[in-house]
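Render this sequence as a predicted structure.
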Amino acid sequence: MNKLGFITEELDTLKETGLLIHIRTVEGPQGAWIAVDGKKVLNLCSNNYLGFANNPALKSASQRAVETYGVGPAAVRTIAGTITLHKQLEEKIAAFKGVESALSFQSGFCANLAVIPAIVSDGDVVFSDELNHASIIDGCRLSKARILRYEHGNPEDLQGKLSNEKNARRKLIITDGVFSMEGDIAPLPEIIEIADRFGAITMVDDAHGEGVLGRGGRGIVDHFQLHGKVDIEVGTMSKAFGVVGGYVAGSKKITDYLAQKGRPFLFSSAVTAADVAACIVAVDILSSSDGLVKQVWENTAFFQEKMREIGFNLGRTKTPITPVIIGDAKIARDFSQKLFEEGIFAQAIGYPTVPVGKARIRVMISATHTNNDLAWAAERFRDIGKSFHIL
């Protein structure tokens, strides 16, 4: 008996259905143009919205931090791993987000795994948007709370489900701020209003909102002017901030509690000094200037207008996330491969990341792109789209 035979069968099925992920290798720093598998290509894959991943000021800060603090914290933060830079970053994030306090984590994924099980458990109910990120889904599962998914971006469905759960001990509403595969924005004002009516705790994962939405990229809460009305904000430092790490922002009561109860905080070593130092500089730059944020929005409008004129379906995006909806997973995979041959790095996304029949090429716009880059890319999309008979 081959006890691992199921793995072979599953991999074969993924190949046959066009869902096997092809992991390419990047051979240098992130930027508008990068080297991938030995080929120079236009980078339309990266979450590096503002170009911080290869920013000289961030790199210099990392180098200085290594000389001062070394390469690793050598312990979890509660034992011997918190350094001065961790505290500085948390103070700067709190000021940037306009909240009382912030607590940093190893990633946005870890932040969600820390928060949700610490806030809810048996006897509680989580109300989660059906398109929420995998880290939210996993955090909900770990919590052992009952999970009710409401229709994507539908406050009326959320209200209906809350109406039927009046006896729940605690009620927690969780939504992405910007949905990573759709590019649309959560109806946060309506969600907050409903939460207040039913006494529910509110939590927003702003991973794709920070650095993009709001004044100077302060995120969805600032975008809707809802300061002080959202109980818990979760964020990442690996997208617009260009580095790695995550955080929770809100009241000091929340962060003090999570420092005692958040398992990733308690049982996993912290982000390195080099990474934290770079994150600090990224926050400083955004706190002092909105130029890069404006640039990414200008680039977004330019590219999306051209793609819609060509005839591509971009779904309901309202952000730089640009889903080029193909439908069939095999066609999306072949489309992505053809793009790569033509000099464009833009990966196909299929099930289970997106629903069956909704496969797409997800294009991510950056402030580092030029109009010439984006116009050239749109032309390649047009020519390949015609060859695949999908326009």
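Summary. The first strand starts at residue 33 and ends at 36. Residues 212 and 307 are 21 Å apart (CA to CA).
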